[in-house]
Amino acid sequence: MTSLFFLVFLFSSLLTRNVDADPNYIDALSKSLLFFQGQRSGPLPPDQQISWRGDLIGGYYTEGDNIKHNFPMAFTTTMLSWSTLEYGEQMGPELQNALVNIRWATDYLLKCATKTQGQLYIGVGDPSADHPCWERPEDMDTPRTVYSVSPSNPGSDVAAETAAALAAASMVFREVDSEYSLLLLATAKNVMQFAIQYRGIYSDTLPPAVRPFYLSYSGYKDELMWGAAWLLKATDDSNYENIIKSLGGGDQTDIFNWDNKYAGVYVLLSQRALLNNDNNFEQYKQEAESFICKILPNTPSSSTRYTPGGLIYNYKLPQSNLQHVTAITFLLTTYAKYMKATQHTFDCGNSVTVVPDALIKASKQQVDYILGENPAKMSYMVGYGPSFPMRIHHRGSSIPSQAHLSCSEGNQFLDTPNPNPNILTGAIVGGPDENDAYADNRKDHIHSEPTTYISAPFVGTLAYFASGGSA
Predict the structure, then answer these.
(1) Residue 393 a catalytic site member
(2) Catalytic residue among 324, 393, 445, 447
(3) Residue 424 CB contacts under 8 Å (≥ 6 apart), including other chains
(4) Residue extents of the structural domains in the chain
(5) Which of 68, 94, 165, 461 has its Cα between 20 and 30 A from that of 206?
(6) What is the CATH architecture of 2-247+257-263+360-466?
(7) Carries keyword Hydrolase (predicted)?
(8) From 34-43, 266-275, 294-303, the region with the lowest mean pLDDT
């Protein structure tokens, strides 16, 4: 652990700028990492700062309910790890908190992958039984059904995403805890082999009561590419490059989220083309730039819509819209980083030349919008700024911590117009509607519910701006 504390000491000096800036990215970074404590499942450690929480067995609750969905949880873990790999040097003293948050997830994912040979556990809790209840995780009396995939009931998507998470995390811990890193990597290889050998969409194997939630709409090809790309980065084993090539090209896309990983694959692999001058990955660089041209406004191929206030808005998948914003913003920032390192520019057509600072400017606009520079003058990060959501769709936040209520007894706290008694600091809600309006209504889960996969990509982008990154 000596090297960890050395890194924290070494990089803390990098977080001396922008302390008094508006937005205060350092404060936002700290709060974004604190949020994950509020989502913890399992026995909580002595240094738990969100004191109104306490309960069960590992990992993170995905959103405001009491279900653990491994598909988005693994994506959350991958993005926390990618954020740390790219921007750990800019996190200063928050680096240690990032490592703690990643390990809380990977300890759980390791158990899911190794508890029973030939099975990968992929979720805990019955959504159909849980959703009608409004009760804290500490008081759950709903079935804690465990779901898994196996050779006879395959799930290439969730398995490959789990492999990606473990492989990415193995690089985070390589210099900090080499033994743990090796365990993560070995498990990632095994889970990836399972994903490749037994192919199928995980949601096809789930019972009807579970199937409506976190379906793999994009299929499993993107996760196979994503998992192989992360294992290639972690091992430099050409077998994973061959797997990627055998899958053929990916979709032309203008989204990136817990379900659709193609854009993430392109940006991750483009690093080899840009930084390593490896022509074998030129096509992924071109795909990454095609994706970016679809995101930026005023380009010939732009397919992204914006609210009147300038927020990226996915009209096709509007639920928890900020999940798209934080994930896309991370890719813009990271690709700009690669471009700056190689003095690279590219063309979006019609003589529209894209320079790195254009991506940083676009990213900063989205970050600043989330932190309060928007028509509503509201921060969509709980606990940040003078105005933020007070009635978020989150059971633990909305029920007083001293209350011990059964399933239906908690509805009084769902229905009340009063603010939540517990502040889930750092949580980012689904965000405003297409007209920049936000009702702050607890029952409007589409806009008021926080999720781990909204927050995870935002960590890296905040670290970039906290250290003085600018357009």
Answers:
(1) yes
(2) 393
(3) 35, 38, 50, 382, 383, 392, 394, 396, 397, 450
(4) 2-247+257-263+360-466
(5) 165
(6) Alpha/alpha barrel (1.50)
(7) yes
(8) 34-43
